[in-house]
Amino acid sequence: MYLTKEETQALEGEFGEGVQTAMGLLVDVGEFYEADRLIPIDSAHISGVSYLTGGDGLIDILDFFVEKGARTKVFSTLNPSGMDRDNWESHFIDLEFATKQLHIIRNFEELGVSTTCSCTPYDFGHILSKGQHVAWAESSAITFANSFFGARTNKEDSLTVLSAAITGKTINYGFHLTENRVPNVLVNIDASLDEYADYSIVGEIVGKAFNKLPFPFGAIPLFRGISNPRPFELKGLGAALASFGTHLFHIDGITPEVEVYSDLKPSHFHDEITVTDDMVSDMYEELKPPSESIIAVIGCPNASYEEILEIHELTEGRHVKEGKEFWLFTNRAQRALAQSSSVFSDLVDRGMKILVDTCPEVTPYDKSRFSSVLTNSIKAQHYISAPSLNNLPTYILPVRRIVEEIFE
Ligand code: F3S
Predict the structure, then answer these.
(1) DSSP-derived 3-state class of residue 273
(2) What CATH number should be reported for the domain holding residue 298?
(3) How far away, in angstroms, is 371 Cα from ligand 1 center?
């Protein structure tokens, strides 16, 4: 792999051991992918923050980079952690976990990372433009960066993204190359998509249809027949697709790169599917709760202010039923927007719990109280029920129906 003079100096340790380690990792991975070179990036979104998933190994790695004086070279944001930093005691988090989680976040801070822990960095100023090369981790954020903004990122893992942030470089392969961004499957939407959960359900149908096809960078759907989606609905579609390994999609007339591909003939695509209203209803039927639910979680990916306003409107004049729980996961920036009006206090008065810095998947649930979870997000449904995480049966309803179930 070709290295510039500066990259070679970094690899030889001229800029310190932290930068040397980060550069060494990128070069090793780059050679594995037979990449020709590294390319500069404009920003990074870093995952691997939760103590629940990273453990003491994560602390050791971050301690190393901090001790060696490494600093991020580009604008870098951070994914959700394992707890709400302000209210962890009331969410069943023990002191040891909290201490270690705070240590991890402090390390990132010292490395120069913005610690508004959230998987939706685009909701608080981490905005991208078409063609911009970045290194993002967190599958739903990657899919949004590639598809909604038309920026270019591979699915970084927690180590490659940290190395990219420290060196300001990423490996030139995969989605950084135009030839790997061409859609390979066609999706015709012949269904009315009216809300977030509908888009999430479409992601499940499409993901299941194509996830076995042997594409090197996953299925890349071209959607036809979607009109006027709201950005947070595309976030829901992308998060669901991401849980099947799709990190880029195009939508006719909507996403920034689609003009190049909108005239592709049906024969270009490896496979095709038409999603109908019946298919959407059948999927809802399959994923609906078998009995009354006690807890609902919204905010996978973290809820935008627009989603918070929607919930505010839907719950007007209502209150969470005795013995039930409604948890809304967002980030500090969206919470600040809600706090700047009466919206935040209204939601709290109506009995909702609003959590920041974390996500519904890495939050522990009290299994003596909750035997299942209700949500509007397919990604949450996949991960909350995962045996390696909370292992709780998780069901899907549109947010209006969730409100009916949880509020009086
Ligand atoms: Fe975000 Fe956690 Fe869902 S990181 S996309 S809220 S799984």
Answers:
(1) strand
(2) 3.30.499.10
(3) 21
Beta strand pairing call for 43-46 and 373-375: unpaired
Q: What is the mean pLDDT of residues 78-97?
A: 91
State what percent of residues in the chain have pLDDT above 90: 94
Rounded CA-CA distance 239/203 in Å is: 8
CA–CA dist 312, 318 (Å, integer): 10
Which residue owns the Cα nearest ligand 1 atom 2?
359
Total domains in the chain come to 3
Please give the distance, rounded to the nearest whole angstrom, from the Cα atom of residue 360 to the centre of ligand 1.
7
C-beta contacts of 334-340 below 8 A and 24+ residues apart: 334/123, 334/124, 334/302, 334/303, 334/304, 334/305, 334/308, 337/305, 337/308, 338/305, 338/308
Tokens of 10: 């970094």
Closest residue by Cα to atom 5, ligand 1, is 301
Q: How far apart are CA 279 and CA 370, in angstroms?
A: 30
Give the confidence band of 120 by pLDDT, cuts at 50, 70, 90: very high
- Quick: pLDDT tens for 173-208: 999 999 999 999 999 999 999 999 999 999 999 999
CATH number at residue 271: 3.40.1060.10
With the most atoms of ligand 1 within 8 angstroms of its CB, the residue from 83, 200, 302 to mutate is: 302
Q: Are residues 292 and 280 in the same domain?
A: no
> For the whole model, what pTM was predicted?
0.97
